[in-house]
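Hi support team,

I'm opening this ticket because the web form for multi-chain structure prediction keeps timing out on my end. I have pasted the exact lines I submitted so you can reproduce it. The total is 467 residues across two entries, so I didn't expect it to be a heavy job. Is there a limit I'm missing, or should I split the entries? Thanks in advance, R.K.
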Amino acid sequence: MVKTALIIQQDLILLQVLERMILNHDYRCKAIRSLDQLDIEDQDENFDIIISDILFDGIAPLDYVYQIKEIIRHKSLLIITSMGQKKVRQNILEMGHVSGFFAVPFNFDKVEQMLS
Amino acid sequence: MEGKLLLLISILLFFLVLVWCTIGISLLYRKIRKKQLDRIEYTFANEIAKYLYPPRGEEYSFINVQRALQAVGAKPSKKANIQYLIDLMIRAQRTMLGENYIKLRLLFSQIPPYRAAQSKLKSRKWYVKARGIREIYEMEQSQYLKDVTRERNNPNIYVRREAQIAMVVFLGWESLRFLPYLKREMTLWQQIKIVEKLFALYPDPKIKYLKKTYATQRPYAQELLMRIIRKYNLFTEVDYIIGFLDHESFDRRETAIYCISSFKLTGEQLQEVKAKIFNVPTIEQQVQLLKYIHQISDTPDLEFYDAILHTGNDILELSAAEILWTSGHEKLVHEFYYSQYSTIDALKEVI
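Hello R.K., no limit was hit. The queue was backed up. Here is the completed structure from your submission:
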């Protein structure tokens, strides 16, 4: 069965590069720039991995992660963000069920290792 | 009268229509321009992604990227589009590390703009020149290092700031061969920027370059060196900072006190600092040093605090008394204050 991935990144460059990287690992991938672009069908999907930013308009980073956990079914969640302050990182990792936290600039090889 | 009014109204109406037309054209232009820039961004992101992770069984070279970008208008003849492309390149490079970063650097050296940054360096406008230098170091085009180094003493503060940062990015610790001997002063902000950039890119200290610059007499350079010693926590070089604790310049002393406060000293160094405190001409700085000495000492040096109590300055006396009092030597404080009154009667009068 084909694995599924969801990427949510505001930065278009990062979004496209991550999408191509995931596709090369034989995933079925949906890449969007914000949660507004999610379809109703996506809520039935149980994504193998979600790769998301935490900086979005109108919502605090921690609330955003809570919301993701609540509304989208998934097996693992990976955060890739330009908001790499130690405190934010610590708070998010302490929430549990977050497989990894990468602050920009980061090494894509490490994300690939997590995929395989 | 009626005719004049009609003429006035028609002139005003004409201006109103003119303003509406200008707004309309501006809105239309912005809409088209935004679409064009979005197309360049989308194409750039897409091409970069394909270049870094080519679809299975396909080869994707820089020529494909170049053709795709030219097709959406990122050509050398369209300067505004090229500038946008440079900003995108810098943004892309800032997000990646490792193998992808190296691949991107290789790609950017092969696609246009080939010499955009270099032509900016020759510009007469300071903001174009400064931007050119920033793009050169952000995109690590080290081939322009010579041209950039020439601008380190530029009369414009923004141009020389960028040139100095570029030298740190390209040369690292070796940039200390030039930075302490600049013709113009360096602001505190620029010193901090240089120290932070050096630490971020070259975290391993090369003390031989630092030691060679100790002879510099430029005020900003001495402060810069002290900040570097503090940032890298070079405890072997603390003596350089101690040397400035009783310097005649207020700013040098201020920097030395700030920088030394993150170090723990050896017994010998502590004695030297204690001796220097009496030569510091500003009371506030003496108090700062006193608190620092107390903070790093295991047990209070009673002889030293006794000498401070007898300096004749109320603020220093009070600080020393406070330290002694909180360290459990209340008796010494009592003795000192009682000794100021010659007889018991005089003391009773005060109480």
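A quick check on our side: DSSP finds 19 helices and one strand in chain B. Let us know if the file doesn't open in your viewer.
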